[in-house]
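ARCHIVE CARD
Drawer: 12
Card no.: 0347
Subject: one protein chain, sequence and derived structure
Cross-reference: see card 0346
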Amino acid sequence: MDIRKPTRRSLVALTGAGVGALLALRRARAQPPAPGPDRLVLLGVRGGPLVDGYAQTPSASVIVFRGAPLVVDAGYGVTLKLIEAGIPLPALRRVFITHHHSDHNLELGPLLYNAWADGLADPLDVYGPRGLAELLAAYWLSNRIDLEARIGDEGRPDLRKLVRCHEFTQGEVMREGELAVSALRNHHPPLAESYALKFQLGGKTVVFSGDTSYLPALADFARGADYLVHEAMFPAAVERLAARRPNASRLAASILSHHTSAEDAGRIAAAAGVKTLVLNHFVPGDDAAVTPAQWAAAAGAHFAGQIVVGRPMLSLPL
């Protein structure tokens, strides 16, 4: 066996190779894994703030477009569902909130924090109705001690400076390249600031109804969309839900006044001429007596196109 004493030239070469490998590894680590192909994923499909397990969690969806995840609503459970869907948290660049009910925004702050804890180092834009800045400021304050300790002790960038807050009203929300997002004020009392959102993604269009009572104007807003993701209520089941709660009469009246039945969601889809109606945000979301076939039949009474009954982790191609 020929064992030779290493020369200075060979050591320099080895050292250079090692440094090169280390830099390549650092560059690879700095780039989050790709979030996969263009698609729409329903993460949480349950209407209302009640959480009684991991499988059924409140509102959250993600659109992956050109390698960028666009999160739509951040109900409780959104972080873990994104991970389950194969979305790297440091890859997040935009989050959209339709309105400020807790089943749509409760995990916004923790989602941003979790992405930061996992290595987020680039700016992240958050869009929502009036009140978003106040919501974020309160979250930063509630975690100020931890944030400042980790910034100083671990050398992390300041998350409060990475997150850019954009409050919107009806009209164009943002536009960049092939991506354009617009908002339509819907009807969700007692909240005045509640919106449907339309995502124009190159040649594809995805519309989210948000939480709303029957809104004929939504048909024009969603005209010809590839996917209309519409909330769905089953009125008979709402009565059963209310009967199990101490505030039964008030609760039933509230739910019925500002949500859309699955049947009326079908009416909107038919008037809009959408390609696919995706039922989502089920109210109630915990009544096993209402089967997927019943949800689909209710919407199908007025819509002859494709109907998808949403479920957690359902992925639809774009």
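Annotation on reverse: The first strand starts at residue 39 and ends at 44. Residues 34-313 form a domain with the Metallo-beta-lactamase; Chain A fold (CATH 3.60.15.10).
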